[in-house]
Design a protein that fits this description.
single chain; Jelly Rolls; 7-stranded antiparallel β-sheet
Length: 237
């Protein structure tokens, strides 16, 4: 039987550091909620707003797949592998931390904030060679459909990572209804609504609401208004 768990936008953890405002769907840093540790292998979903000229100084990670999806503004990335990149709205970035990396992420602008999703997925392999990838997406490819932006396969659409996970971005016009069919075995689906309002199997999500879904083969998504949203299908083991 299908199982649904609704996460209202205002139920998320709220960290305000002045230069950084972050809303945490799952337990992170000083926000701890034992019932909200993860959704399968989806460990972190942070909705970050970084003030002009500010950012995350150099810090280390290992054995985690880290995805950044800018929503507005320009994010400057530097890492111990020698990558220096600008990530903009319309791009997606993935890092396999593996045996260990150090990186920093700064707001490139001295005038405007940058807003981005920071997502962590637990890998299915430990101690892999660290790697970095970035891709510029075509926003038209998500209009009234599901634009795959991430998968487990290097030769598939979007970037790839070390886990059975498929992410899709969508922008639906009012009244559009589509069925998303899960791609993996034993996977669940987390729907994060970015703007507007949608119904997922009849359950309404407003901006920044989330819905965790398990034990389904497909879900019906309908736009109650013009809406943008992110689907994250992940291994549950």
């Amino acid at each position: 039987m299908a199982n649904y768990q609704f996460h209202a936008a205002d139920s998320r953890g709220d960290a305000n550091h002045g230069w950084l405002r972050s809303r945490h769907t799952f337990s992170f840093s000083n926000y701890y909620e034992p019932d909200r540790m993860n959704f399968g292998t989806l460990r972190v979903l942070n909705d970050d707003h970084v003030a002009a000229g500010m950012g995350f100084g150099t810090h280390a990670h290992d054995n985690m797949e880290i995805i950044s999806i800018p929503l507005s503004g320009d994010l400057e990335h530097r890492d111990s592998m020698g990558n220096v990149e600008i990530i903009r709205n319309g791009d997606i970035q993935v890092m396999s931390a593996g045996t260990g990396i150090k990186h920093s992420e700064y707001n490139k602008s001295k005038e405007e904030p940058v807003k981005f999703l920071q997502i962590w997925v637990v890998p299915n392999q430990r101690d892999v060679e660290p790697r970095y990838d970035q891709l510029t997406l075509n926003p038209q490819d998500r209009l009234n459909t599901f634009q795959q932006v991430l998968s487990p396969f290097p030769d598939d659409e979007g970037v790839w990572l070390h886990q059975d996970a498929w992410f899709s971005l969508s922008k639906f016009e009012l009244g559009v209804e589509k069925t998303y069919r899960l791609k993996g075995e034993g996977t669940g689906l987390y729907v994060f609504n970015l703007s507007g309002a949608i119904e997922v199997d009849g359950q309404r999500l407003s901006a920044r609401d989330g819905l965790a879904i398990t034990d389904v083969k497909d879900v019906a998504v309908k736009a109650v208004s013009e809406a943008e949203f992110l689907l994250m299908e992940v291994a549950m083991r």
